């Protein structure tokens, strides 16, 4: 389906029913699959034949959604996971283990910061956090002999820092390592990081891709462009004894990374999505292009309204001309960024909490990026595990209100904020 526009791919990619088959993607609610001979099953286990044998590794419903997401990102393959956290973890562990080092932008999701600074550290992976605005020379200083990858978010949650993907990709490739980009907030509708040199993309599909806050999920997408045979990634270029000495780069070519993630790490870690969740994710993806357009136009309208209101201290939205990331956003996301904005209200932390409590339409929820407008105070919730220093380097001010603008009628969203501000 290469020739279709991405909007068409949202609807049509992944599942192609044959004559007389279900028009809609069926839910294969089955853990297992029947075969006629044990010889055939043995070949499946040895990866000599393709086919489904256990849903921990692959499932026909999930498979269709993976094909759709790979097509949307322009990758050669994808693997869905049970959550975005699992996607980030597996994407990294696939090429980086005890004794290795990785570099991450400091402006990332709070849960990812914890994963890197706490759990990866315990697993023996050392992480250096860098300022996303650092120059190439400064970034170069963070590299070590055992550095295996760089990680960043297209549009950081919740700081809304726009990452200069080309800068990160250039420095990664100079050092023989891949760039992994978390593209959750932009979605492939607004940015396709592979077009700017990223090698691997991860998502929390729990956000815009699902879009309705119904199913937790994640996905890893492989561009197929990185050459893993450069001596730095023995896990991919030397024999895997758990598959009779198979060498991924030789047996799988451009798909080496995504095949290993599935047949080795998903096999062993088991953070698989449920077929039912994959079905719901697919429903969300079918309208992703429509929803992103409305999320972005609503968010820009609200951001402009807030900017003009004298009870508001500051507004952060990369779609605003006054924003320091405006030019980068225009380069990487010319059609819009996302529906999330952040702002501070005059009166600081206390006023922020009051304003949020006054809102009627917008609800306080620990989630972003679904159809309903919601608000959150990261410093006292999602980011409360971070020290003040980490908060600042993650771009989270203590008075920051994160507002996820939904796809309601925009005047109703503004009226709600207006009445909440009047009560302050
Ligand atoms: C939510 C989120 C995650 C984690 O995803 P879960 O599905 O909640 O596990 C990772 N990265 C970003 C940018 C997120 O917004």
Automatic annotation (TrEMBL):
Q: Which UniProt keywords apply?
A: Aminotransferase, Pyridoxal phosphate, Transferase
A molecular function GO annotation: transaminase activity
Sequence positions bearing N6-(pyridoxal phosphate)lysine: 207
- SUPFAM superfamilies for this protein: PLP-dependent transferases
The Gene Ontology CC terms held by the record are: cytoplasm
Q: Name one GO biological process term.
A: transsulfuration
| Cofactor(s) it depends on | pyridoxal 5'-phosphate
Q: Which family does it belong to?
A: Belongs to the trans-sulfuration enzymes family.
Q: What is this protein called?
A: Aminotransferase class V-fold PLP-dependent enzyme
């Amino acid at each position: 389906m290469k020739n279709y526009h991405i909007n068409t791919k949202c609807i049509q990619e992944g599942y192609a029913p044959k004559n007389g088959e279900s028009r809609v993607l069926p839910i294969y609610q089955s853990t297992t699959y029947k075969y006629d001979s044990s010889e055939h099953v043995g070949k499946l286990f040895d990866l000599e034949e393709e086919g489904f044998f256990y849903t921990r590794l692959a499932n026909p419903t999930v498979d269709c959604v993976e094909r759709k997401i790979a097509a949307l990102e322009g990758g050669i393959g994808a693997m869905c996971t049970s959550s975005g956290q699992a996607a980030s973890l597996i994407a990294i562990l696939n090429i980086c283990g005890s004794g290795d080092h990785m570099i991450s932008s400091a402006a990332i999701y709070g849960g990812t910061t914890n994963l890197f600074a706490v759990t990866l550290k315990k697993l023996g992976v050392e992480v250096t956090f860098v300022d996303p605005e650092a120059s190439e020379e400064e970034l170069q200083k963070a590299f070590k002999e055992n550095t295996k990858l760089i990680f960043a978010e297209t549009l950081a949650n919740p700081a809304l820092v726009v990452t200069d993907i080309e800068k990160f990709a250039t420095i990664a490739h100079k050092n023989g390592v891949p760039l992994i980009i978390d593209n959750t907030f932009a979605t492939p509708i607004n940015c396709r990081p592979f077009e700017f040199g990223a090698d691997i993309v991860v998502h929390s599909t729990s956000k815009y891709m699902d879009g309705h806050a119904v199913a937790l999920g994640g996905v890893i997408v492989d561009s197929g462009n990185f050459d893993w045979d450069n001596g730095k990634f023995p896990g991919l270029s030397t024999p895997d004894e758990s598959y009779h000495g198979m060498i991924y780069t030789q047996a799988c070519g451009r798909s080496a990374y995504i095949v290993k993630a599935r047949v080795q790490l998903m096999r062993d870690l088991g953070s698989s999505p449920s077929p039912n969740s994959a079905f719901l994710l697919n429903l969300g993806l079918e309208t992703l292009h429509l929803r992103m357009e409305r999320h972005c136009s609503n968010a820009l309208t609200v951001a402009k309204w807030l900017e003009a209101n004298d009870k508001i201290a500051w507004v952060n939205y990369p779609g605003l001309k006054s924003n320091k990331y405006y030019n980068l956003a225009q380069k990487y996301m010319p059609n819009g960024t996302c529906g999330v904005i952040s702002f501070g209200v005059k009166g600081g932390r206390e006023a922020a909490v009051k304003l949020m409590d006054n809102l009627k339409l917008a609800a306080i929820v620990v989630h972003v990026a679904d159809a309903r407008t919601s608000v959150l105070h990261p410093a006292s919730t999602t980011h409360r595990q971070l020290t003040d220093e980490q908060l600042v380097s993650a771009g989270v001010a203590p008075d920051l209100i994160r507002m996820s603008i939904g796809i309601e009628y925009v005047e109703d969203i503004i009226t709600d904020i207006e009445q909440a501000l009047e009560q302050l």
